Amino acid sequence: MDPIKKQAQQTFSKNKEAYVTSETHRNKNDLQAITDWLNPQASWTVLDIATGGGHVAKQLSPDVKAVIAADLTKDMLSHTAKYLQRLSNVYYVIADAEQLPFIEESFDAVTCRIAPHHFPNPDRFIQEVHRVLKPGGSFIMVDNIAPEDDVLDKFYNTFEKMRDFSHHRALKVSEWKDFMQDSRLSVKQEIVRKKTLPFKDWAERTLPHNEVKHVKNFFLNASPKVKSYFQINEDSGRILDFSIDEWMVHCTK
Fold first, then answer.
1. What is the pTM of this model?
2. Coil, strand, or helix at residue 147?
3. Which residue from 180, 90, 93 is spatially nearest to 140, judged by alpha carbons?
4. Mean pLDDT of all residues in 148-169
């Protein structure tokens, strides 16, 4: 197995409860936007790739026939299955986002939220999304993105890797759009928004307390340009919160 994927399995197995309870991952406004953009139908079968804590699967389950909640990490998936055990139309499959175990044109819609920055081969992921989608089907992706500016891109991906070794790379929107165009997915609607993260919750989700200080110091020593862009909020040597860019995009096949 790819070492990045193995690291992701270890990270999510160890922190499975934190991803279920995370305020960032449970954000109702974000989840409701997915429903609004998809306009799901009662006859649909939906695939949620890298389901993590199952928040998207839970959101969509009342409105569709079935949701396949797929994840690379068995421990994470088992934990999520217990969390969502009352939902009878959610089914769980261990699956690699870059090599999905489904036949062509299986799904009316595919979703993937706050996960693709872990994927070592995002171009293959997009190819797989296209393959398993029915003609006319919808794909919604939500993920952290890197700024188009190379200096800001490097700062962002550096601190994400410091905080989570399973982080591969957050791509720029321009890079994602190249992959989508190559795979014949058409962008229907999109939005880039700032997402404010409470530093303590964000850092301690994956790091032991004694390692959080290294990330904190990286923030404190950043240039004024970087601090301004990421809206790093300091107080007496502490980092209270900061903001990153998130892209939500709706594509059709």
1. 0.88
2. coil
3. 180
4. 95
For 181, half-sphere exposure in the C-beta direction (CA atoms, 13 angstrom radius) is: 6
Contact, 226 vs 155, CB < 8 A? yes
Q: Please, which pLDDT band fits residue 19 given cuts at 50, 70 and 90?
A: very low
Distance CA 233, CA 220 (A): 10
Q: What is the pLDDT of residues 199-238, one digit of tens each?
A: 998 998 888 888 999 999 999 999 999 999 999 999 999 9
Contacts of 189 (CB under 8 A, 6+ apart): 37, 249, 250
Q: Phi and psi for 247 in degrees, rounded to 5?
A: -115, 130
Rounded to an integer, the average pLDDT of 105-131 is: 97
Instruction: Return the amino acid letter for 57.
Output: A
Q: ∠128-134-139 over CA atoms, to 5°?
A: 60
Backbone phi, then psi, for 143, in 5-degree steps? -160, 160
Q: How far apart are CA 112 and CA 57, in angstroms?
A: 10
- Mean pLDDT, the chain, rounded, equals 91
Domains and CATH numbers, the chain: 3-148+165-196+245-252 (3.40.50.150)
Q: Is 19 exposed, middle or buried (0-12, 13-18, 19+ CB in 10 A)?
A: buried
Helices (H), the chain: 3-14, 16-21, 28-38, 55-60, 74-83, 122-132, 150-163, 173-182, 199-204, 209-220, 224-229
Phi/psi at 127 (5° precision): -60, -40
What pLDDT is stored for residue 90 in this prediction? 97
The per-residue pLDDT for range 132-143, each reduced to its tens digit, is: 999 999 999 999
Q: How far is 58 from 41, CA to CA, in rounded Å? A: 15
